[in-house]
Amino acid sequence: MTALKFMRCSSRTCPTIRATIGVGWSRHASSNPRYDYDLVVLGGGSAGLACAKEAADCGARVLCLDFVKPTPVGTRWGIGGTCVNVGCIPKKLMHQASLLGEAVHEAVAYGWNVDDQNLRPDWRKLVRSVQNHIKSVNWVTRVDLRDKKVEYVNSLGAFLDSHTIEFLARPGSERRQVTSEHVVVAVGGRPRYPDIPGAVELGITSDDIFSYEREPGRTLVVGAGYVGLECACFLKGLGYEPTVMVRSIVLRGFDRQMSELLAAMMTERGVPFLGTTIPQSVERQADGRLLVRYRNTTTGTEGSDVFDTVLWAIGRRGLIEDLNLPAAGVEIRNDKIVVDATEATNVPHIFAVGDIIYGRPELTPVAILSGRLLARRLFAGATQLMDYADVATTVFTPLEYSCVGMSEETAIELRGADNIEVFHGYYKPTEFFIPQKSVRHCYLKAVAEISGDQKILGLHYIGPVAGEVIQGFAAALKSGLTVKTLLNTVGIHPTTAEEFTRLSITKRSGRDPTPASCCS
Amino acid sequence: MNLCNSRLSVTFVRQCSTIFTSSILQNKCSSINGRVSSCSSSFSAHRTMSSGHRGSRDSSGSPGPAGAAGVGGAPPFQHPHCDRAAMYEQPVRKMRTKGGTYDYDLIVIGGGSAGLACAKEAVLNGARVACLDYVKPTPTLGTKWGVGGTCVNVGCIPKKLMHQASLLGEAVHEAAAYGWNVDDKIKPDWNKLVQSVQNHIKSVNWVTRVDLRDKKVEYINGLGSFVDSHTMLAKLKSGERTITAQTFVIAVGGRPRYPDIPGAVEHGITSDDLFSLDREPGKTLVVGAGYIGLECAGFLKGLGYEPTVMVRSIVLRGFDQQMAELVASSMEERGIPFLRKSVPLSVEKQDDGKLLVKYQNTETGEEAEELFDTVLWAIGRKGLVDDLNLPNAGVSVQKDKIPVDSQEATNVANIYAVGDIIYGKPELTPVAVLAGRLLARRLYGGATQRMDYNDVATTVFTPLEYACVGLSEEDAVKQYGADEVEVFHGYYKPTEFFIPQKSVRYCYLKAVAERHGDQRVYGLHYLGPVAGEVIQGFAAALKSGLTINTLINTVGIHPTTAEEFTRLSITKRSGLDPTPASCCS
């Protein structure tokens, strides 16, 4: 069996890995017979699955445990973790639905004889379509695991000691114990609820919204991180009336100017913001609607409003409590696990990847790559570490915001304002003219060193298909992109991405960053 | 919460003030055909705010070499390629007398992307510039247009808008799949679309004229021909005018070719006519499978007309042929028939107004005929050298193009060429713009930087778009040998395609790279949604020395299609199946 796995590994995976990571490596020498498994992965999300599959590909004996606790209103889902079930995938689909509603109106401007006067979405049909897609991904994931010889058990695993994991093999059956040489904790996180009356009973989270059986209607979105803004935006695009309640700032951790621009764009589209406001209670009225009482922390004034749905988007917490980490001696910080550059916890053979890690970006592709690299280090003799710097990301609001590298503030903080040059510009997407879409918030900037070839530290873009635009520039940043190179890259006309090659106005110059001419 | 911080508000005010000043402009310069000087007062009036140091520098009268950009005023920063900001702040100097006796330092022939960029940049660097521009009406329908050249009037811009219209038709169908209560039995209103497109073009023409005036380029709406290497005869509406210049830049661009067959010119149209066609194109024969032919066929199909593509030899000559065939297949899958190995023989107009096209299969020799409402020639473009009387200036030509050296100089020392009229260079707007601008900086700004024509990214706006940068697989193999080239490839499934069940059969991408060593990426190819937006950043990456190792260690943005480049792991050499299995792990 081991020999067979080795054959499979050398014929299938090795050529690509060798070609791609460019280092010679040998297979995990031999499995330690003292343990049932070479690796137990706790959590079947992006990080856990990537790690488990890669480890199995490298010949390791792998067990993956995955279990989803239902939300307070009872939502549950299958294998694949947050991204597939209650994160990126349904979010992107709802975002796409909302953009398509906008596209129908634009189609009229472009001459299509479509009736857009009484355009309404069918929420149930949309939810069903989204859920069907998720189910099919769940299925493909299961098949993929089987195919890759990863043993999968739908159960909640917990440590008995640092090498022993206990779980229920089947509902109602006895608890089973297995031992493993290595353990990877990839249990991820779940949305937080505020500690106010009615929060858990009457509010929902992003865990529920994508399978919500009734139209959300007038919705209060509490929290202005990217989850909150994205939900508010697709709800608005689908014709519901979201309001965003912000405790302090919008999109904490992102570039301030871009974040405020994004909020202004949402305001322009009719999404109201309740600034410096915190919720105090949620009560169900006789008519079934939800009365939310809140307080403005700046003015101290209290207010209340009635909503059909209250969505908490105030942050996510790591799911450490069911793991019995003290039994293994794993250290935690807040509700996350602290790891070093090799993703090792304080217990050398226990690792953590994905959203459960303390202080790292909570993003699917980060989780996948770090999980995969970890498996290669554990079982294929590889040495490459995950590079958490310059990770690109996108906020899927109607005009999307994408960025890679440093925010302007971070650049200034790290390098000093005198050593930073910011190139910026507003631009007008060609397609926006005919439907007369607002170009007011179409803006981009490059944060660069001021001297030498002006190495680029960060790129920021608000506009259509932002993620598609920024991805290539993320590769460019990793390749050492400079302003010199950027401006000598020939544009692709007419695109919006080409605007990066036309950036010529510095903030320092004080000149007007609005464009005049179009094609010369 | 204060949503607009102060910096932002300032920017907004600035935006508003720009709109305000441009509306003043419209009022004061209501006569757009008037001479430049008639509006100069109003321009200088609204410019005073930013011209604090202008007057003093003007009065100091020190001409100084134009090359010393930023002399006198402190430029905001020093960088050879980013000093546009400094340049824009320079005063429009009194010209230093170069030849002494010439009317202009520079005459640019052609007011398209290359010519305008060159003319404007030359003025910003202190040259006295005239720009001649003239559009000959098309032979069939007499279509003509304003300043700005091919891209703005009959190229990229209207093409992209029609493409967008066609995509939006598709979006309406997708909206229904996503649950919108829209009746997707829809039809386009061709005339409304054409009107919208033309209105947009007119507004760009206007902005271009204002911009020229603003930048003090003398614009002459006339057809220029050389008398000698320093003298040009301009044919204007009002008569003829002889003008002289130290330097000439030829940027006359190109126009579509017609085949030499009966009825071609009388009954066929080209991309010069299509975007302002005053009737629905209906069933259309598109002759030619270059990118223009495929793009036109693509949006016509999307708008509900019935295009057929006639291909003489291969699809998308010059592009990666695997990708080209995938593009063709994706169009065939959408119901666009391709008549392969076929050449048209004649076009006759029938009594009912329909066009009878006779054609021949060049392999079998078989002849056939079919009726169409419209015949669109997209068989290539020719350089507009004919009217320039180049022999008088001694400029040599190759076919209908002008060969230039790496400085864009022709064989005559004071005559240059940029844009589509150059022999053997990519015919693309941004190439023309950058080349024209760099030329002007070398001529008048003391710069030395030359245009780099390598690794220019481009996009074909077919329904499923194709974009690429760098070498095709064939070219890489030719250049480095098959044993030294590794091709990573993969099919992929855009997340958004699942619900409307759009075909993912042709969503494909590949990276052509060095096989050994650092595995430097030679070329990237992508077939899928918003291809141009996806490839642009990778073009910058290629210019920054992208390697496979860097590419696959770049963290993806999920869920996008562009992230598929970071997931490329299967080599062609391995023979492994490049279709994907899992989605998010």
Automatic annotation (TrEMBL), chain A:
<keyword id="KW-0285">Flavoprotein</keyword>
<dbReference type="Pfam" id="PF02852">
    <property type="entry name" value="Pyr_redox_dim"/>
</dbReference>
<dbReference type="GO" id="GO:0034599">
    <property type="term" value="P:cellular response to oxidative stress"/>
</dbReference>
<dbReference type="InterPro" id="IPR006338">
    <property type="entry name" value="Thioredoxin/glutathione_Rdtase"/>
</dbReference>
<feature type="binding site">
    <location>
        <position position="157"/>
    </location>
    <ligand>
        <name>FAD</name>
    </ligand>
</feature>
<dbReference type="GO" id="GO:0005739">
    <property type="term" value="C:mitochondrion"/>
</dbReference>
<keyword id="KW-0560">Oxidoreductase</keyword>
<dbReference type="InterPro" id="IPR004099">
    <property type="entry name" value="Pyr_nucl-diS_OxRdtase_dimer"/>
</dbReference>
<keyword id="KW-0496">Mitochondrion</keyword>
<feature type="domain" description="FAD/NAD(P)-binding">
    <location>
        <begin position="37"/>
        <end position="371"/>
    </location>
</feature>
<dbReference type="GO" id="GO:0004362">
    <property type="term" value="F:glutathione-disulfide reductase (NADPH) activity"/>
</dbReference>
<dbReference type="InterPro" id="IPR016156">
    <property type="entry name" value="FAD/NAD-linked_Rdtase_dimer_sf"/>
</dbReference>
<dbReference type="GO" id="GO:0004791">
    <property type="term" value="F:thioredoxin-disulfide reductase (NADPH) activity"/>
</dbReference>
<dbReference type="InterPro" id="IPR023753">
    <property type="entry name" value="FAD/NAD-binding_dom"/>
</dbReference>
<dbReference type="Pfam" id="PF07992">
    <property type="entry name" value="Pyr_redox_2"/>
</dbReference>
<keyword id="KW-0521">NADP</keyword>
<protein>
    <recommendedName>
        <fullName>thioredoxin-disulfide reductase (NADPH)</fullName>
        <ecNumber>1.8.1.9</ecNumber>
    </recommendedName>
</protein>
<dbReference type="InterPro" id="IPR046952">
    <property type="entry name" value="GSHR/TRXR-like"/>
</dbReference>
<dbReference type="GO" id="GO:0050660">
    <property type="term" value="F:flavin adenine dinucleotide binding"/>
</dbReference>
<keyword id="KW-0520">NAD</keyword>
<dbReference type="GO" id="GO:0005829">
    <property type="term" value="C:cytosol"/>
</dbReference>
<feature type="binding site">
    <location>
        <position position="355"/>
    </location>
    <ligand>
        <name>FAD</name>
    </ligand>
</feature>
From TrEMBL, chain B:
<dbReference type="Pfam" id="PF02852">
    <property type="entry name" value="Pyr_redox_dim"/>
</dbReference>
<dbReference type="GO" id="GO:0050660">
    <property type="term" value="F:flavin adenine dinucleotide binding"/>
</dbReference>
<feature type="binding site">
    <location>
        <begin position="288"/>
        <end position="295"/>
    </location>
    <ligand>
        <name>NAD(+)</name>
    </ligand>
</feature>
<feature type="domain" description="FAD/NAD(P)-binding">
    <location>
        <begin position="104"/>
        <end position="436"/>
    </location>
</feature>
<dbReference type="InterPro" id="IPR023753">
    <property type="entry name" value="FAD/NAD-binding_dom"/>
</dbReference>
<dbReference type="Pfam" id="PF07992">
    <property type="entry name" value="Pyr_redox_2"/>
</dbReference>
<dbReference type="GO" id="GO:0006749">
    <property type="term" value="P:glutathione metabolic process"/>
</dbReference>
<dbReference type="GO" id="GO:0005739">
    <property type="term" value="C:mitochondrion"/>
</dbReference>
<feature type="active site" description="Proton acceptor">
    <location>
        <position position="558"/>
    </location>
</feature>
<keyword id="KW-0547">Nucleotide-binding</keyword>
<keyword id="KW-0560">Oxidoreductase</keyword>
<comment type="similarity">
    <text>Belongs to the class-I pyridine nucleotide-disulfide oxidoreductase family.</text>
</comment>
<keyword id="KW-0809">Transit peptide</keyword>
<feature type="binding site">
    <location>
        <position position="380"/>
    </location>
    <ligand>
        <name>NAD(+)</name>
    </ligand>
</feature>
<dbReference type="GO" id="GO:0005829">
    <property type="term" value="C:cytosol"/>
</dbReference>
<feature type="binding site">
    <location>
        <position position="160"/>
    </location>
    <ligand>
        <name>FAD</name>
    </ligand>
</feature>
<dbReference type="GO" id="GO:0004362">
    <property type="term" value="F:glutathione-disulfide reductase (NADPH) activity"/>
</dbReference>
<dbReference type="InterPro" id="IPR036188">
    <property type="entry name" value="FAD/NAD-bd_sf"/>
</dbReference>
<dbReference type="GO" id="GO:0004791">
    <property type="term" value="F:thioredoxin-disulfide reductase (NADPH) activity"/>
</dbReference>
<feature type="binding site">
    <location>
        <position position="224"/>
    </location>
    <ligand>
        <name>FAD</name>
    </ligand>
</feature>
<comment type="function">
    <text>Thioredoxin system is a major player in glutathione metabolism, due to the demonstrated absence of a glutathione reductase. Functionally interacts with the Sod/Cat reactive oxidation species (ROS) defense system and thereby has a role in preadult development and life span. Lack of a glutathione reductase suggests antioxidant defense in Drosophila, and probably in related insects, differs fundamentally from that in other organisms.</text>
</comment>
<keyword id="KW-0676">Redox-active center</keyword>
